[in-house]
């Protein structure tokens, strides 16, 4: 019992504040470095390329300044981009949410790593080759090329709205962790972290974002590994951790219950996880922008490979950390004992209780959580600003801006998004279960937009009418399910069925909470679905409705279709009229385009090194 008595006695030491401050200063310093020194060198090199006669590709930005600021002149390196891709997904939501998910619902979620492997194959072979050949600035440019400007505008507006909902979640999670160990108000913390992130994102552009992400992800991984290592030592051994988890019913890897109402099943994790991860990593602008900052398809595919290894390793560590937390609190659930108020505070409390007396370690952990938040936040700010410029202002409103106006617009968008994110943090204080909330909200936009891109790349006869109707249907059904589920949960009509917990060793007079679950049979069936199924339903609804409506309204004539707009996995089935004449490129033919794009990593845009070649002249 003694290990629970001093539960709240550990708080930040001056060494913890020092470690945390170092991470903050490094973030800001990186932004300043790339804002001035590196930026000046890059612009000089870009101007030399222009002066030497290099032709600008048709889809690059109008000026070297904006091209450098938003895409790094398409000359970034594989490893920092790969780490930035990890940072695009891994945030405090992943760290704290995954731990609480394992603690309360078992290890079935761990099987998401299998879905991630299949996602990597799908993204690199189906979607990425199309973007690489077209050399888009924004992924939503593709929708205008394939369908119409209206479809592009619809998808880009959904992306902006989605990211606006996601930003406060990214801010709120580390604020909870910091509040737990310092007592500083959540809103003060979220405001400070947002200001810091906005500053270095505005000053340094994508290069600052990518390179800052790289070391922030390193700090994050090291911090979690340190906590896990010390936790294992205190638990006795890894075997003891799994033994305790098994006795507590937490080791669940193959729950084949076919019910779509159960929160975590093997089918829900594998199928829902694959759709969700593919939706996010295949077409979301936060990811595509980083793919396009690399000079070639082959390097972009390598970045996905490294990203996959990194994300699987990190999620696995977080899942194991969930088992560690359960082993420590197996006899005293901290939520039931009133020691925490949110389930997402489990890991911060565990850290303070187990390693709080090691000065500097709690600071390292909180720095890792904040690093994850800063990474995700900067990625979203930078990508959303690009979408506002390219898709909303230039694409939807058809406005032509000067370089100065474009710069003011992009940086102004970053500033406004930061203010909105801080304001929306107040809403999140009323919500619990960060992992499911984030997944459900994101699934609305992610499912619909992924459905649109899938319709365009894998259904050659689809048309703009089918795409529009399919997108509306997908968004409506996803929104109906997601928000309906949240309302049902808020009103107590649906409750998560958590695994058994214990309070027998808790200090004081703590009673076991009653696990009495109400009858949910009267709740509308779609509002009882596990959050894993929202995204697949959105994607499939968009594709199926879009396909049917396209046939009814008049399918696209395949012979008039540009093969570059279709995924190379289908090129062998397209008529030869879809391919450009051999005088434009010797490689783009019906017989060899699919193999060329999938295996060689060289598209119509240029050579393997990303330098200009004869094949890229028309760009």
Automatic annotation (TrEMBL):
Keywords from the UniProt entry: Cell membrane, Ion transport, Membrane, Sodium, Sodium transport, Transmembrane, Transmembrane helix, Transport
Gene assigned in the entry: LOC119633698
NCBIfam families in the record: sss
Compositionally skewed regions (Polar residues) per UniProt: 609-619
Cellular component aspect of the GO annotation: plasma membrane
Membrane topology field: Multi-pass membrane protein
Keyword Membrane attributed: yes
Region named Disordered: 596-619
Coiled coil location: none
Signal peptide: none
Pfam families: SSF
Family designation: Belongs to the sodium:solute symporter (SSF) (TC 2.A.21) family.
GO BP: any one term: sodium ion transport
Organism: Glossina fuscipes
UniProt-listed InterPro entries: Na/Glc_symporter_sf (IPR038377), Na/solute_symporter (IPR001734), Sodium:Solute_Symporter_SSF (IPR051163)
Broad class of where this protein is predominantly found: membrane
Residues passing through the membrane, by range: 17-37, 78-97, 109-134, 154-178, 184-203, 215-236, 265-283, 304-326, 364-387, 408-428, 434-458, 465-489, 533-552
Subcellular location: Cell membrane
Classification lineage: Eukaryota, Metazoa, Ecdysozoa, Arthropoda, Hexapoda
Record bears the keyword Ligase: no
Protein name stated in the entry: Sodium-coupled monocarboxylate transporter 2-like isoform X1
Gene Ontology molecular function, alphabetical: symporter activity
UniProt xrefs under Gene3D superfamilies: Sodium/glucose cotransporter
